[in-house]
DNA sequence: CAATAAATTGTTCACGTGTGCAGGCTCTGT
DNA sequence: ACAGAGCCTGCACACGTGAACAATTTATTG
C-alpha cells in the first residue's frame, strides 16, 4: 500500500537517490553493475515512478489531448472509433490519451496548460475551435489539427481531400448517366460539409448541370437525419435519380426512406455515401462511397504530435522553431453497387414517368 | 509564455503565496475582500494551477482511466462510442478521461499507480483482465467493473443482464413459431458471448427444443464475421428459419449473406440482433433486437467511480472501507420487423421445402 | 610511483503547491 | 487603556524527482 520511492530504493541499495534516479533513467554516468542491481531491486519492490513529481521537474505531463469538436451529435461512431484506435496504435504506452469534447470547455480554456498536455490533437469539424487552438499555442503546447485546413494557424495539419473525393464521386454518378443528382449535406457549419458540398457543386458545373436548390437538403451526419432528408427529397417536385449522401450513416437512413416508399435502390434511385465505414460493404446494395483514410490520418497525426513534442523538448523549449508540416491524404472512390448506370433512353422514360406523375 | 504561479500572484498582490493558495481554494480562513482581489488577479493573469505540483501534495492525478479489454477487434464502434460518451457526460471537466486498451499493457502493470489514476473504469469483456484489476486494487485504486460480474473482486460493478435479454429474445422467436433457431455467437472467450449463449440455450430448453450444434456458429462481433457465419449456416443440412445474432453488427452481415443467397428477411429467414445500436431501426427490415443500456451503464459507472474516489479521500485514505455496490440494469426486448410469425402450416411447408432440397 | 584524467557517486537545491503552527492585527468588554 | 479572544496572514517544510556541481574512487600515463 505505502508507495515505494527512489529514496526507499536508495536506502536499501546503500546509494544516494540520485544514483537510483540515474540508473532507472539509463544514464550513461552509472556503472552497469550498479545500474542492473538497482533496476532489479526496483522491479522486486514494484517501484512505480510518481508522474507528478517527475512532471514537476521535467515539465512534462505525459498526456496527449485528443479533442473532438463535439461528441454529442455530428460525430459518427465509426469515425470516433477509428480515430481513437488510430491514435492509440501509435502512442502505445508512451503517453496517456485524454479524450475530450471541445464543447465541454465552455470557452474556459484555463485548464489547458503545458502541465496538463504535452501536445494536443484536435479532430476538428468547425472553425469554432479556433479559440481553443490559439489558446493552446499561446501556452506553448504543440498542436496537430486533423480534418480541416489550418489556414494561418501555426500547427501541424493532416487532411483528407474531401473536396476532391466528393468531386470524383459525383462525377462518377453523372457519368453513369444521372442528371438529377441530389445531395444530403452534413451538419451545418462543419468544414467537411462545406468541402463536400463544393466538390458536388463543382462536378455539376463541370458537366454543365445547373444545381437545383430543391435537390440540396441539410442533414446532420446521423442516420436519422439521412432518413428525414430523403423523405423530403421524395416529396420534391423533381425526383432525383441519384442522391449523394455526405456520409455513410446518412446513406443508411436514406436507403430506409426509399424502401419505405416502395422504391428500389439502385433501380429507382441510386445512393452514394462518404467515408467507407465498416458497414458500407455489407449494406444491400453494397454502398458506393469514398474511402476516407481516417485511421491513417489519425496515425499520422499521432506520430506528428510526438515528433513535435520531441522537437520542442530538444530545441530548448522554444516553441517558435518547431517545424509544422501539412499533409494531405488522398481519399479514394470505392465503386460498389448502389449507383446504377442508366442509358439515355432510360433517362427519357424516367422523365416521362416523372412528367405523368407531376400532373396528378 | 512563461507560466504564472501562485508566487507571482503573491508578489503582485503583496501577500504570501500561502494566502493566494488559500484564496484560490476558497479557504474560509481568508477574508472575502482579499479573496476576491486575488481571484480577480489570477483571472487577469490567466493563472493555471500546475496539476503536477498540486497532485504531488494532494495525492491526486485527476485522471480517470477507462480501460477496454481490447480496441482492435471484438469491440463494436457504436458500443465504444456510447461508452466514452456516457462516461464523459458525467465526469465533465472534473477529471481527465484516459482511454486505453488493456492488451497494450502486455502484463506490465507498473505504470498503473495511484499517481496515474484516481480511479479506473474497466469495460470488461473477459476474465483475462483479472490480473490488471487485482494490480489496481493492490495499489489502492478504486475500480469499477462494467459489463461482467465481479465475482470475488472487491470492485464496484455495473451489469446488464445479457442472459435474461437473450432468453427473452429467443423465447419471443420461438413463440413466433420458429423451431430451428440458429445462433451466431460473439467472440470466443468474451463473457457476453457466454451469457447470451446460455440465455439462448435456456430458452430452447424451456420450450423443449433440442439444441443443434450445427446451428451454433462462432462469430467475432464484427460485421464480416456475421456474414461468414451466416454463409456457413446457409450451407448446413438443416436450414434455420430464424437466426439470433449476438450483436447488431453481425446481424447486418448475416442479412447481407441471406440476400446474396437470393432469400428474403424475414420471409425466408428471420434475423434478430442484440444491442439496439443506432442503425438497428434503419435497417431493412427494421431489426428486432435487445436494447442494452450501454450509455446508462457508463454513466452509472462514472458516477460510481467518482463516489468511490470521494469516499476514499474522506475516509483517511483507507481503501478497505470503501463500499462497493453491484447494480444490474435491465435490458429490453425491442420488437421490430426482422422476425416473422409463422403458423404451424407454414412451418410444415417449410419443412417439406427443406426436405425436398435436402434430397438433391 | 606519482600525477593526472576519467569514471562513478554524492550533496544540495529547485520545481509549484498545500498545510501545521506561530504570530500579528482588530475588536470587544471592562 | 488594557487584556483577551477571534480573525487573518505568513513562515517553513514536505511531496518525489532530476540536474548542476562537488567529491570521491578508479584507471591511465609518464
Question: Topology of this structure?
Answer:
The structure is a homodimer of 360-residue chains.
Chain A: H1 6-13, H2 17-24, H3 32-44, H4 51-58, E1 63-68, H5 77-91, E2 96-101, E3 119-123, H6 130-138, E4 143-146, E5 156-160, H7 162-175, E6 181-185, H8 191-206, E7 216-218, H9 223-235, E8 242-245, H10 248-260, E9 270-272, E10 289-291, H11 294-314, E11 326-329, E12 332-334, H12 344-359
Parallel strand pairs in A: 1-2, 1-3, 3-4, 4-5, 5-11, 6-7, 6-8, 8-9
Antiparallel strand pairs in A: 10-12
Helix pairs in contact in A: 1-2, 1-3, 2-3, 5-11, 7-8, 9-10
The structure holds a DNA duplex (30 and 30 nucleotides).
Describe the structure.
- The structure is a homodimer of 360-residue chains.
- Chain A has 360 residues and is an alpha/beta fold.
- Helix content of chain A is 43%, strand content 14%.
- The first copy, chain A, is built from 12 helices and 12 strands.
- The first copy, chain A, has helices spanning 6-13, 17-24, 32-44, 51-58, 77-91, 130-138, 162-175, 191-206, 223-235, 248-260, 294-314, 344-359; strands spanning 63-68, 96-101, 119-123, 143-146, 156-160, 181-185, 216-218, 242-245, 270-272, 289-291, 326-329, 332-334.
- In chain A, the strands form 3 sheets. Chain A has a 6-stranded parallel beta sheet with strand order 2-1-3-4-5-11, with helices on both faces.
- In chain A, α1 (6-13) packs across α3.
- Mean pLDDT of chain A is 89; it is low at 353-360.
- Chains A and B meet through α4, α5, β2, α9 and α10 of A and α4, α5, β2, α9 and α10 of B.
